[in-house]
Amino acid sequence: MPITDPNRIAMFGWSRGSMMSLIAVTKTNRIKTLVLGATPVDLVLSAINRPSLEHDVFKRLIPGYEFDKLALLEERSAIYWPEKIPKDISILMLHGTNDERTGIVPVFKFADTMKSLGVNIELKEFPSGSHTLIESKVSVYRKVLSWFNEHL
User: Fold this and answer.
1) Residue of 122, 143, 140 whose CA lies nearest to 131
2) Measured distance CA(28)–CA(13) in Å, rounded
3) Which residues have CB under 8 Å from 1's CB, separation 6+?
4) pLDDT value at 1 more than 90
5) Is the Cβ–Cβ distance between 28 and 86 less than 8 Å?
6) 56 vs 41, 60, 67, 81, 119, CA distance in Å?
């Protein structure tokens, strides 16, 4: 579209969408910044912590899951391939400390690894925040708009 600027492309994903956004940036150099919410960076750990995911989600949505579970979960888990994420991207991660679906501990580890690799990343924690962060929606909106204004 003529009104778009190909040098100012951002992605915004939440939960599974944030996992897919991380995968997407390994396949293109067109994304300048990411905003990720409630990101499942380690599906292997998620499967251990939430066994219902295996039957309710993974078996249904991941082709061949029953034949190679570990490899397929690692393939979708950015914590296992941080070096594939471009170093010139900026990333904002938003996460509630009471996220009942996606634990925050792997997100801390992922953010620390990204920093050590030289990626411009910020992890914004929301105390007592849930998976959706609906209780902090005004703060979330402000942070996202501020991030885009600064990084695009």
Assistant:
1) 140
2) 16
3) none
4) no
5) no
6) 19, 7, 17, 26, 34
